[in-house]
Amino acid sequence: MSTSGSTESNPAADHAMVAMRRRVVVASTLGNAFEWFDYAIFGMFAPIISKLFFPASNEVNSMLLTFATFAVAFAVRPLSGVLFGLYADRFGRKRALTLMIIMMAIGTGMIGLLPTYAAIGIAAPLFMVVARLIQGISVGGEFSNATAMLVEYSPDNRRGYYGSFQMVSQALGFTVGALLAYLATTYASPASLESWGWRVPFILGILIGPFGYWLRSNIDETPEFQRYLESKQKPVNTPLTELFTKHLRELAVGFCIVVMGTVSYYVMLLYIPIYAVRQLGMPMSGAQLSSVLSTALIVVFCPLAGSLSDRIGRRVVVLPATIIYAIVVWVAVHHLLAEPSLSRLILAQMASSLVMAFIWGPTPVLLMELFPVGVRSTGVGLIYNVAVALFGGLAPFAITWLISVTGDKMSPVYYVVISAAVGVLGLLLLRERRSDPVIASAQASLR
Questions:
Q1: How far apart, in whole angstroms, are the C-alpha atoms of residue 32 and residue 212?
Q2: SS3 for 237?
Q3: I need a surface site. Which of 103, 203, 239, 254 has the fewest CB within 10 A?
Q4: What is the mean pLDDT of the chain?
Q5: Considering only the top CATH level, what class is 14-446?
Q6: How far, in Å, CA of 447 to CA of 444, rounded?
């Protein structure tokens, strides 16, 4: 069976592989979108959740408590990422993915059904923390295993394109979540929204579990992992030891690249709409509409960026996009602060999202190509979740605190620029394992 564009002719096997690839893309993209939809809607309804579950002496303290709960889910992600990575590197990607989506449905359903602080007192925020922990454990292994499934099923010359659907799914989940939040905010009265409207997206998340499980249980294990298991090489018993003895440079490079990507998400797509409502006095519905339009743009352009990286190389796409992104964010947010308006918010988010797509698109395959198949899920799961926990999950809390202490409304921009500098450092240290098609073509012409 040909899985990488070889010249071996077997029409029936090739047709079966093409059909399975389609199923894998659908199952991985939709399943991953479900996970990120469940995970992201907490941030979209943070202003309401803060009022209902974390009443405090003032609004800033209430939001800080909510963002601290938001960050709690990230505290367990490095551990769950390693554990699910070890499990997937030992037993396969498919088994890990089916387990994770059920856990996410449980955590999301809990949030949607929880009584408020007014009803059960201190138990309400405590149960909210438990629900977020369950969500964090679930999503901890999602990125590495869903991406491994996509990349390991793809032809060698289209790995960037296939891997980009990991980021398409994240943006799609966020888009649907933001759209539901926008509809709820627009068409429900403030009293209805606080009473029951905010719960609807979380309760819908319960249905995602059975459907996502069905999607993922009807795909095969990746051919690359099957070949690995069938080879003379036994599964690695101590992947963490191998990672820290043989792949330290790759761990550092991957960590820096993820820092850049995660900050772009949690600052520009999640925090800025809340910032616009709380700091700039914009209507919540308008901020949510801006998020819908921005993430839809990422859905469209991520595959283009991934495909471009297949043709000219990963770093050639991501490095200039990172530098341009920092400049665009600085100019766009400064423009927004000079004269706050919904049109300027939409412009700021859409401009940054367009450039963001060219960072996000090649990133999944770039991270996968850092590590061999036997330690791939563990390595990517580790660096991804540690970077997200330290720089992504804490971003809303850290920026809210910085603004409250310094009064500098440009604090979100400084956070983005620093993360971009970290990303540039990682990209400069990157040694791409794949052959660059441009260099390969030039070398062939000299022969």
A1: 9
A2: coil
A3: 203
A4: 83
A5: mainly alpha
A6: 5
